Please model this.
Amino acid sequence: MQQKWGIRGMAVAPHSLASESALAILREGGNALEGMIAAAATIAVVYPHMNSIGGDSFWVIHAPGRAMGAIDACGAAAGLATKQWYAERDITKAIPFRGALAANTVAGTVSGWGAAYQLSKQGLSGKIPWSRLLADAIYYAKNGVPVSHSQSSLTEKKRDELSTIPGFSQTFLVDGKAPVVGSIFKQERLAKTLQQISKKGSKDYYRGDLANLLAKELTDLGSPLRVSDLQRHHAKLIDPLELKHSMGNIYNMTPPTQGLVSLMILGILDQLNLKRFKVDSAQYIHHCVEATKQAFMVRDQFVTDPAYMKKNAQSFLAPTFLKKLAKNINPQKALPWGQGHGPSDTIWMGVIDGDGNSVSFIQSIYHEFGSGIVLPTSGINWQNRGCSFSLDPKTLNHLEPYRKPFHTLNPALALLKGGSSMVYGTMGGDGQPQTQCALFTRIATYGLDPQDAISRPRWLLGRTWGQTSDSLKIESRFSPWIAKELYGMGHEIEMLDSFDETVGHAGCIIREPSGTLHGGWDPRSDGAVSAF
Model:
């Protein structure tokens, strides 16, 4: 599979129609932010099992010659979302994964689109009308799109679990069954909602007629969310975290995301001189996995809503701290593990325009189909990100009103020595930092091209969909000798399919100093790289 080339603009997404929406905006003279808004709106429609406008999003942004930027479009817990509120409903041990009681946080993604649009106009002289950016999404929702293999197969896997959740069967099933691959999937209620956002702007979702409708729908279904929760929400422009690496500077999102984890893994491996091992060898994988364990332990002890954090996240990226963690790694023996966090469903996308403006973007509803509820009038599938809260007040991420939930989401961007820039990322919960590690090291450390780096077999430490084991899962295209050697080091090995969705849908775009663009997409997805 060959990497894609371009010069005037490039976009990558796990669904080809989303990358084409971004490219169309770039062809019309739009910039990377405008292209990403279009792609974000489109993929919320055409890849509904992975994301929706009822979820959250995060952006990492680079404009040549300017300071790095980021957008936090994460919604907080409802004001009514307290341990007592759940206790009154006979829930005392854990917040449900599904249903209206799991829909307890504001959906921030549309506010992120609005913030990006304002940033585009103010900082990049953006000229594409807001209505144009949502036009493709509206068309696809109203007139339908062919069902992808990923949507069909995942709907079938989750059909029994979700069929009784309000709105799910009506929206995602056909005569009680998963839609057939290639059949036309329409979301006419969602089309009308997107049309309203197109006419009245993103603020209507939070402080307009649409906000009042959403609040009523959520309340009627039993969610603790109210219109006051929507009204208090705003996307935030922030500075991303930065790792100074021997190959350049790498950026990722701040808490409550695990962007810190992705950067820490790369920082630890940089301390260990990873290049002394052959790429994709057992020693290479072992060190990547052991660095992941060290970073996860820091995550699980410290990473939460920034307002509740006891230490500054950037301090964990200090070379002295990373060197200390690197010394904890045994080069021949795996650290025992059993601390997985479980599944997540997300999309990552990247856009770089002809001027070098770059966006790394991620949008999610947490588990597949989020809470499972689909609001009856607006047609919005609401996220269940708030089920990641704990009802135990002694835990790090315990539930509090207006608190932001922990996010696995983290879009990555790197400015490499020599002048190249790179956007990269993936979906996949705990797998996100691990796949980012594979992509960055294969490309920046070992010099592989983006498509080769993405297509090569990958690994995943931890729990995934429907699994309770915290084993090290590796795709079957790895040599049996690799698996045997890793097992000998103490890793509990499970084999995955040759190209397995479990390890995520990754993507990458690199812009060279000459302006040349090259990128890769994940054959495990329904995606594509689009360029001109």
